[in-house]
Structures are given as structure tokens and as C-alpha cells.
Design goal:
This protein is an all-alpha fold and about 170 residues long. The protein has one domain. The chain has seven helices and no strands. The chain has helices at about 5-30, 35-60, 60-70, 70-75, 80-90, 100-125, 130-170.
């Protein structure tokens, strides 16, 4: 049914180490700040969504369905875990989108992950240029780590600026 070879394991586990550690760190260290918690959840999200996507995309039943139906429509199916998790996270933090525009930036970064997943799923078995497919695979594997590195930097700078702003406010007399 589902063959988990060492290559697949490396493709699944290694790219998710940094999102697991970094996203977990953001969630634990900066839990009190809503925007940082949102960023931490989006950074951690691939740890949950990618294994589900991987299982769907590499399973025998998906390949059988893919052969007999519209490939573009079927290629959208592996997006479901990521989209559902993102929509859940956005729903939880919907009130803060008006307050902090940074949340939109990280949502756009997450949508870029969806697009990459869709394009890869849609064209994995087609005759497109091999270089493009290799780029999509590399980008799809590297982007969660890059996203997490940016998230760690932004959250740290945000915390420092908020602490500085708190320290410089005059105390009421």
C-alpha cells in the first residue's frame, strides 16, 4: 500500500526538523503575544500537513484515481490538509488581522506553499521541463525551513521592539 523507503523518509523528516523546532520554540517562548502565536502556528503547520500530503500523494489509491480523473482537479486534493489547517488558524486569529498587517504577510507566505504543492502535484507526472520539477521539489522542501527562519527573526525582533516600547513609556506619577 504505502512504501516508506529511506529516501521518502529523508524527504519527509529532514525538511520538517527546523519547522518542528523553530515553530515549537515560537509557540512556547512567545505564547502570550497573539501575532507571534499565529506566526508560530503557521511555522509549525507543515509538521502536521506535509506528512498527510505525502501520504495522500504517494499512496496507491491516489495514483489510481489520478489516472482516471481530471489531473488538475485531483492535484488539488493534496492541498486539503494545508488549506484546512490554515483556515482553522486564520479563523482563530481573525480579529487580529485588522490590527497587525504582519499577519497578512505570513498568510501570503503560506499561500505560496499551497501554490507550490498544487503545481508540483499537478505536473509531477507530466512532460514539463525536468529542471522546473526539480526546482519545485527543492523549493517545496526548503520553503518551510526558510519560512521558519524568517518567522524566528521577525518574532524575536517584534519581542525586542515591544519590550523596548514598554520600557521607554513613562510611568504614571
Amino acid at each position: 500500500m504505502f512504501d516508506l523507503r529511506p529516501d521518502y523518509f529523508r524527504l519527509l523528516v529532514l525538511p520538517l526538523l527546523l519547522p518542528f523546532v523553530g515553530g515549537g520554540f515560537i509557540l512556547i517562548r512567545y505564547w502570550k503575544d497573539n501575532v507571534s502565536r499565529y506566526i508560530g502556528m503557521l511555522s509549525f503547520k507543515p509538521v502536521i500537513a506535509y506528512p498527510i500530503w505525502f501520504f495522500i500523494s504517494w499512496s496507491d489509491w491516489y495514483n489510481k484515481v489520478y489516472d482516471y480523473h481530471n489531473p488538475m482537479l485531483i492535484a488539488a486534493f493534496p492541498l486539503a490538509p494545508g488549506i484546512l489547517l490554515t483556515l482553522s488558524i486564520v479563523f482563530l486569529f481573525r480579529h487580529f488581522f485588522k490590527v497587525d498587517k504582519l499577519m497578512w504577510l505570513f498568510l501570503i507566505g503560506d499561500i505560496i506553499r499551497w501554490v507550490n504543492t498544487f503545481v508540483f502535484s499537478a505536473f509531477a507526472d507530466s512532460d514539463i521541463v525536468l529542471d522546473l520539477l526539480v526546482f519545485l521539489v527543492f523549493f517545496g522542501l526548503a520553503f518551510p525551513s526558510l519560512y521558519t527562519i524568517i518567522a524566528l527573526d521577525v518574532v524575536r525582533k517584534r519581542a525586542v521592539s515591544q519590550n523596548t516600547a514598554l520600557e521607554t513609556k513613562p510611568t504614571p506619577s
